[in-house]
## 1
Amino acid sequence: MIQMEIGPIWDTCDFLSNALLFAGQGTGYADLTRPPFLSFLTSLFFRLGYVSPTVIFALDGAIFVFGVIGFYLLLKIRFSDMESLLGALLFSTFPIVLLFAGFGLTDVPSLSFSIWAIYFTVLAVKRNSKFFYLAFPFFVLAFLTRYAIAFVIFPMLIYILINKRFVKYIRDILIGIFVSFLSLIPCLLFFYSTFGNPLYPFSTFFGVTTTSSPISSENFAYHPNLFYFILKSPVYIGTVGFIFLLIILFGFFIFTSIKLKKGDLKVKNHLKYYFNVKNNFTKLKILIILLLIIIFVGTFGKITYMLSELIFFALLWFSYDLLKNIDIKNMDLNLLFLSWFMAFFIFHSVYVMKDGRYFLTMTPAISYFLILGLREVSNKLTFGLKNKHIILYLFTIFLLGMMLLSTTCYLLDLKKPQSNIELINEDMISASHWFVNYDADYKNKTIYSDEWPYTGWYLKMHIGMMPIFRDNQKFYCGVKDYSFNSNDNTAFNNYLDAENVDYYFCVRKGLNLTHYKPIKQFGDVVIYKKN
């Protein structure tokens, strides 16, 4: 409901325009390099006559709920019902999750599908290998919803490989991959007919996410700091997440202090106790692990993210092989969630474009470890209690109350930081309605816009993309194009003249357009007409 009041943002308008095209109602504007699945689902409702941004908001919200259910079921494999419920609620009430749930973007839906892909992978390994028939197709659905979610394949593969029985169910793995490929074929055929290359959108995405991509440092999302998401994490997980962390740290501090006073805390030499360190093969494993740690830390951010991913997951593989003899319950699940977190942390930290919504991919793993820490603390603080679960019950009641209070306050204030989105929507709607009546033949005119997805959606026609000119450079969405050479103000005039533009929807201030005059203004949106 809040998102319906705010309206769609730039990216959402692109997905909506693509949905119109898929529904056979294309307007001439579409961005088919974007992942297609959410737009495809939206197009099914457009075909039924429900052409409105509300459709994509509702779909986004419904898939979010579907993902929360999947996360609860995933946690139940390790935790009790109450702990799993608490973990699912924690995940779903993180401020960063609430902010983008129902937003009409692909981040939350792709995360929901990836949760189910992980869940079915665990079920396939632990219970029945035929669950691979669902795990890999859900991975493909997640990938076709947002290309960057493809990195979830790393935790899936790590979990399969460390449970070395995978050789026994290799047949079901291959069938699952084959079924997922069948679901991918229609998409590949569509891309082939559109671009002449079935892999073009995928190659475009992975091309622009390399560290050498020419991203402008003035882009709002440009953040080269490798630890950006670590520094921002308290904001993203919110007050309740931070309280979880404090309880865990305080609980372990109390437990350790009591044990030290009683003299019960004994530290063992684990290498000597669990391993035969005289074994040369064990020594080699330890040496490889130390070497991989040094290489990973020393090269992080200095090499392509894909190499860092491979180095880290090789490190996990050797670590599990070394530690598997230690009696650590569910170590495979711990490594699964660690690899899940690191797969996306590595990618999004190395890639210079950073946005809060990219942190969404790390939230399930964070929720898992916070619940794990809370359970360990509650188990260790049960001295002399007959009902050993009372501490966990008290923690749960307190934290649920905090979640309800925090979420209510956050939702009440959710519109405030997005008021600029609401204003640009209102201004663009007003400008579009006025413009349709101003020029009845507008669909036969050449129109460019600074906010072309908005203008294209509201006018239901092809809109030219107006670049930004700065310091003798031309930018499209922050990406440099070195082919243009002119000063800023002259560049806008020359570009509009060169493209023979009839109308220009502008949100840029201070322009002096010699061959164009403003004919109407709605808030920040100014409509220019060629003299």
## 2
Amino acid sequence: MFFEGLKIGTSFFMETIVGFNLPEEGQSIAEISQWAPPETPWLILPVICFGALVSGLLVYTYAPEAEGHGTDAAIRAFHGEGRIRRRIPILKALTAIITISTGGSAGREGPTAQMSAGFGSLVADLLGLSERERRIALATGIGAGIGTIFKAPLGGAILAAEVLYSRDFESDAIIPGFLASVIGYAIFGAFEGFEPVFSPVAVEWTTGQIPFFLFLGVVCAAVGVLYIRTFYGTKRLFAGIFERYHLPKHVKPLAGAFITGSLVVALVYLSPETAIIGLAGLGTGYGFIQLAMYSMLPLSVLLFIPFVKILTTSLTIGSGGSGGVFAPGLVIGGATGGAVGMALHTFLPGMVPIELVPGFVVVGMIALFGAISNAPIAVMIMVVEMTGNFSLFVPAMGAVAVAHVLTGEETIFVEQVRNKSFSSAHRGEFEVDILEKIRVAEVMVPRDRVISLSPADACSQVFSLITSTHHTGYPVLDGDRLAGIITTRDVRELLAGGDLSLPVGERMTRSLVSIREDRTLEEALRLMIDHDIHHLPVVSAGDPGRLAGFITRTDLMLAHSQAVAARAP
């Protein structure tokens, strides 16, 4: 329904109102050659502004979390509570259809990810799933939705496991993702067909041409970093201006759309070549990638499409418009690859024939977005599925590897965490794992360094120790035997006029909770939580009445932090 809504909306706004016979992905050379610029280009401005205004009113009135590209929201939900409000899938679909079909530069991946994750959350509610199962349902929804709408079931399933982290995999989501992607793809294909998104173009390459693809990886890394920084810089700029001047957020997407529309209209009127560049900055832009794959765009156009698409995408989504960054990323990468391929063909026609340029377009799509999304494997498989160019796996592997290394920690999905140890979804597992490996004896304050009291000492001495040491609890020893423990809780009421000369033995806690020195920190933490205490006397493993040391919650937290820091890459 979302896909059909996009087709109907685009047909109505772009074709019927604007008169834009736009190129479309999947068309043959004969079909796509019939595309034509809009008959009344100035209509682009009121149409794109109308879409942005309606989308902004819907989003900021009913669901502010539906703002932006959607994938980050789905990732944030996975690492957070694992819940997405039930209204989000429908609202996200509606606002994305409005934004994209009226010319906003955005893709269908982000909305699909958030919608499908929302359905995963809904299923978890209906079936009463556990917290862990809920998150797997969320991730499965992301992979199945994206794999379905892009007709790339294998890549989509792997994306569900890869896109959540910058340097890790959610392995538990892979098999459920496979099943859900197969089911989604089968249902979607029954209505929309099973052909690849883009019409395949046969490409042959040789080993001697691989260095050219590695060079493309370097260029894609640079353009990808520019995309990330421009996108988030624009987002911060809009947020800062609207906050500083107390402007209503509902019209924030309208501001971005107005600048986008004005830029595109100006380029359309400037010259035939700039018209192509400007029109590629509207909507998903997939039709222009299909033109590039047919080698139907000149170098002068391919050189500028990436920069215009970066700008229009940043203005559309960075201002709060609803849509994904995946499709624009593929257009930016594809045009970058096409420009590099065309330039190499111009200067080295014998080594880079014109027939190889479509290969550069496809590899550029993979290298750029695979790197900036921190999902090189999934994106590589998805794009190959979308284009039907399975022969390009080897040059694509080289290019995306180079681009991924060069982009480093830069990412278009800022809600990604580095690995499972940084995710709330796995935080408990890693804390228990760390604490279970450390023995109490390794962390406790040993007996010879423990500050202790005797039952005969006056309670006034407890307050003196609290003032001088800032500790809040002390073991009480009768000779070398553990007799009890005294804490601020035991003597607090004496501050209100009690007898400070009372012996410690009358105020101390005798029903001791203690732990043996050979036990783990995880067991010590459990005892503290279960009994709501902050101190634990540590007793000898061979003699439970003899004090071996003393441990507090602060000691536990310090040990845990040091262990996490030691194991961090």
## 3
Amino acid sequence: MNLSSNIFSINLPFDKFNIQRIPWTDGKLDELRKTLNQNYSFFRKGEHIYISPGEDNLPLLGELTTFSVDEEPLIVSSLIRHIFFRAFKNQFPQIKPTFNPFTFPSSKEEHNLIIKELPDGLKAAVSYKKLNEIDFKRSEIDGKKKFLLIISSSYKWALRQNCQKLQEQGFDITTLEVAKLVKYENSQEVVAPRFQALGRVLSINDSRAIIETNEGNQDINLKELFLNKTHDNIKLYLEFILGASRAESILAAVKQKEFSRYDPNILSKEIGQLSRIISGLEYKNGDGFTFNISQNSSVAFPALRLESPKYLFDVSSTKTDPSPIKGLAQFGPYDYGKFFEVSHPKVLVVCHKNSSGAFTQFLGRLKDGFNEAPTFTQGILKLYRLHAIDFHFVEVESFNKISFMAAIQQAVESSNKDFDIAVVETKEEFKRNSPTEDIYWLSKSYLLRHGITVQFIKEANARNPKFILDSCALQIYAKLGGTPWILPSSPNIAHELIIGIGSTLIRDNIYAGAQQHKVVGITTFFNADGKYIFSNRSKEVAYQDYFKELLSSLKGSIDTISNEQAWNHGEIVRIIFHVFKPMKDLEVDVVGELIAQYPQYDIKFAFVSFGEHHPYMIFDLDQRGITSRYNNHVKGKLTPVRGTNLMLEPGICLLQLKGPEDVKTDRQGFTGPLLIRIHRRSTFTDATYIVQQVYRLTNISYRTFKPSQLPVTLFYASLITEQLNKLKAVDGWDPSFIKSLRNRKWFI
């Protein structure tokens, strides 16, 4: 592989440096910035204010102090950021960037994706522009601290007219969400203001608006307000000016352009163009602090040697295959004849009478196989070694929620069959309804309440099931409580438990001042071989009580697992926690308190967090992509193979989880790596072991035969969270309904 990235080295030609500083006192920093910001940069660290003169021969404002680069990385990082900002502004005085993060809009016309679609009168008012983003990071390689610059970008909507102008045009902003521009004090207008979401417009009175905010209703001048920069608000405005049909056509054209702009070739090329500009600037202050930025991207980080996972299909650990679908066909599922208890499932089928022909045909193909589906010629009976499968068919006259639910209720409560799973017809347009009106969520709530898991099928897929039969059968088997495959694990003297910790924060809105009201924890539990044990949901509690509730929930689950798996006194137990965001010390303390309650075991633990939204990218310049089997389009261009990784520093790894083969279509754009962090207070810190385990755990979601972008620990937690959030809106729903299903994958 010929790897490149969007990471560029910042090179310092010295080990020690001089900087001015004065003691910090309240108000002094603001005073200095207000009077001297044109020629100096100021920032605070600890009890001192540090001073960076922009040019030579400026008067000395503080005591000149010498520091080591390695001993004061935070001061070095701040100096780099301030000197970069000043050098950029000197070279491009017409651009007004933000400071932290450093962002600025592109001025190229091809980077405004809507401009050619708009009539002349709107070109200055509406834009969808590329926003260049430059971030600064620290790294450590072989014990040596490194400073890095990362280039990335995104596209952002803008509607430049304030709300007074919109009101004068006759555009009604009542009920819409608005924001105001907040300027940075003492910035001398060189830093772009930031948007602050305020709330929703309740009413308009002449030139003023009443805004519903988190601090109560506020009366604000329309000149100070702007619509929130969202796709929905832009769509409403375009519909008002141009009509619904023309607006829809424009937005569809913009979306098509966006697909092409995120082509990996274009991303890599534009990153290189910007790096050449940035690397050509002079970075130097008046005290002699200087650095340069590499023009070429860096991949000079250590990499771990990861093994491609195999799949295990029997408890004796002898039946393995590198392909899950081939292994199933040859050996049958892992739990065949041993743990799986539903070998003769009874299935409730509910569909509209106009779809009944399609559904009976679909069920026949599901049961016995379909020759046109290359990976599903055997059918669910043979592939999953089921003895038989019974279908109880119910046709409905309409998708009216009352009659639809009455038909399901009658089938469940009047039939002498004890259904194991239901197959229910759904439609794409149902998603536009709220959960209280959506047949999908209404029927799911009712059926789960009766201990029946659900598989939803759209009519279009029932009529043309060639590409969905294999994943549909896989999901049905998992929802029946089956384990299609697990991952081979090496003999180990330690018991190992992997716990995924997710949570959902219940808050009123996204506006400034919003309070965090309630939080619910979702935990998933897995063995080292990836075998799903169960999931647990904590009580809905106030945010300040969350960690206490999490501690209680985790302890109850670990007590259950330690008893079931017969952990013995003195044995080594390894517990690896997977969380969505870097854990704060408070959260680590809570888990440490949990571990302390098990002195009878020798417990080692690791806290591992994952980030999908970060600025890092990795490209394989030799990867020309793969031609799709179904058309001539090329997908996966410049995408590194699955398992490519870079250790940015000890305990921090970038792991590519979608290779060219895993990219669905050429319209998918670029798929970046997963960012994995091992918390510094972990007592188990074997990065190779942990990253390899994460790599393996992306192969057992049972939603499809393809790997997932997250380890199953967190993928399951996110699915459970998403579905419980929808279900709680349905009248009569109680989360206790799923307790009887906690060992079954009802949520996939």
## 4
Amino acid sequence: MHPIRWLAVSGLVVASCMFAGVARAQVDLAPFVAEEKIGSLKLSPTGEYYAATVPMEGQYGLAVMRRSDHAITASFRFTKGTDIHDFWWVNPERVLIAVAETFGSRDDPLPTGELYAINADGSRRDLLVGWRVRGSYTGTRLTTGKREEQVAARLVDTLPGDDRHVLIRVAPLARDPITRLERMDVYSGRRTRVTSAPVSTAEYVTDNSGTVRFAYGANVDNVSRTYLRADDRSEWELINDERTSGGIVVPLGFSPDNATAYLRMEHRHGPDSVVAYDIASGERRELLRHDVVDPVPVYDDSGRVPVGVRFHGAQTRTAFFDEASPEARFQRSLEAVFEGQVVSVTSATTDGTSRLFQARSDVDPGSYFEFDSTRNNADFIFARSEAIDPERMGTMRGVELRARDGLPLHGFLTVPRGVEARALPLVVMPHGGPFGVFDAWGFDRDAQVLAAAGYAVLQVNFRGSGNYGRAFRMAGAREWGGAMQDDVTDATRWAIAQGIADPQRICIYGASYGAYAALMGTVREPELYRCAVGYVGVYDLPRLTGENRRQGRWARNWTGDWLGTDVTALAAASPNRLAAAITVPVFLAAGGEDLIAPIEHTHLMERALRRAGVPVETLYYPNEGHGFHTTEHRLEFYRRLLGFLHGHLGGQQAAP
């Protein structure tokens, strides 16, 4: 380990920005496809152990190790396609584990609703609740004896002070489930019903005594409602209805004395805010609100009490309800040492003597450190990705522009290390989603691969993206191929006008919705882009709406609200039906097991391009999903991507 003297800031060795070389003749892709050493890392309540998610043959498993010597005392893993989604120390010896199915590297893992548990010494490996529980000794059963009901569960509260039980949200496995809250034994899986809510897909929030106080969610109409109650014996009181207030209210937690609740509130215009809600009087007082971006809550060491927020703007900034609080002072001390990085505490011992924190930046995926309050000293523990050399990565900066209708847009520009952002070949990279998803300042593997090859990379948070308030997100509704696409075009033209991009050397590349935007970009702007890349994309909107509607009434309603119901209009915004308008070469890649953007979308796009005489290259892997997982497949994708861009923009190719 590398000790870092807490007070001797001047002696701290930080990543230097002195590397001034331009992109090398060929790009070594090995660091970009190497598995991370570690994912999430958490201290046990007594500090005797670490628990961590670690890569295990292409998937994430769980490892428990002694803090004293890092010896592994327990491990837990699944078969391909199932990862550790999250985990929690529920007492000093036991870890609760949530699992998720991973449909590809570009897809957020989908929780399966199963909760497992394991002791730190490797004993008592138990499935406690979930669809695979049938026939097991432990597992899903209520005190009423119901054993056959198949449910999905999610942790709500670890109940500090109760080493035997946790609170979980339970939903039957159905298209439009009605959720309830239950108390579960973390050793036997035995469950007891606690409450339900007046809204079907409710989420629950407890106070600091473990009493369920808030429920919020929506029925099949997808209109959010938030309820509050005084205690377990009280009725639910409606405190927000999205239809009348014009915004969603999400409870974040309570003050230590439970007298104040903290709420994240949407507004009809502008970003969200955090307000203090006086439980006794119902008075609401705004605490924090940024001019541009939404707040993300920051909690105290217990993970229960909100103490501030993070604002993910041009760079990430932390703000506290009380800047004189111990949490604020500790955070400012960290930020002084790790200047220019995002620093966040991830876990702590119950007595507060040890805290784990992570430091990360645009050039570094992140490293974990441990602060010992008894020694006033911080030690390096693990780097998430040892293969990445921060001194060779491209730097990212925030950018701001206006769309053609005057709407402010924000995004990020990454340029090769040591290269001036002038007349560079440019890759425009719209994000996936699209709704509620957003690009943020930080390490982006795709952007870094492209920067290593000599390209500037432009990412814009077009309307419909998250992080910029309700009105900005809602402005993207039913704008596939319309105003959302115009925002990407306007950002590209901005980069040309600023002298950043060589107008003759611009390509557009995206994944999922970003792939749709890449192909629609070439339809709408045939003279702007020299080529396009679509990775695990959706290209036929009538087909997409049909796929979505089969998931339940809420999905049918959501699809109508956000994509639209006019089949003719949807077809007119589908790039596979507009291939004759595409005049530049295209590279398509997809996986045969993709459940998010089924490979048939790419097959339809390819066939349409070939019929139109458009040059098209393809890369298919039948055993991959929504983004390639296998190291060899990711390596080949990046190799083909750089080769394709080299042929049209002139950047560097991958090393053999």
